Amino acid sequence: MPPLEPCARALDSRRAVHHSAVVASSARIQRVLDLATELSREEREEVAAELLAALEPHDDVSDQAWNEAWRNELEQRLADPSPGLAWEDARAQLDARLAAVRAERGGR
């Protein structure tokens, strides 16, 4: 299972804000979120990986086709000479977007 360190750090750094600001679409989701806050970082990583794996379209696409699609995607990314965006820069952009949205909504 690949490490989800940036995701886990983001969850840890925003835990209190996330917990108080999330408006769950159902009571079941809220119960899951409440339980998730009690998990260790490693446990949250495992849960996140399992949830993401559950979203993979294995029912509609064969494992071979799925693996081939990812292989092609990775080859394209490796062939791209651009270095991409540093995590710190991406995080700053996301924080700025979030602040703008919150300001539009009156600080919520």
Secondary structure blueprint with pairings:
Layout: H1 5-13, H2 15-21, H3 27-36, H4 41-55, H5 63-79, H6 87-104
Helix pairs in contact: 1-4
Q: What fraction of residues sit in β-strands?
A: under 5%
Number of helices: 6
* Net shape: extended
Low-confidence stretches: 16-22
Largest beta-sheet details: none
- Overall mean pLDDT stands at 77
Report the helical percentage. Answer: over 70%
Distance between the termini: 35 Å
Give the number of DSSP strands: 0
Q: What's the Cα radius of gyration?
A: 18 Å
Helix/sheet category: mainly alpha
The tally of structural domains comes to 2
Q: Output the helix-strand order.
A: HHHHHH
Describe this structure in words.
With 108 residues, this protein is mainly α. The chain has six helices and no strands. The chain folds into two domains: 55 residues, no CATH class; 50 residues, no CATH class. 70% of the residues lie in helices and 0% in strands. The longest helix has 18 residues. The radius of gyration is 18 Å and the shape is extended. It starts with a helix and ends with a helix.
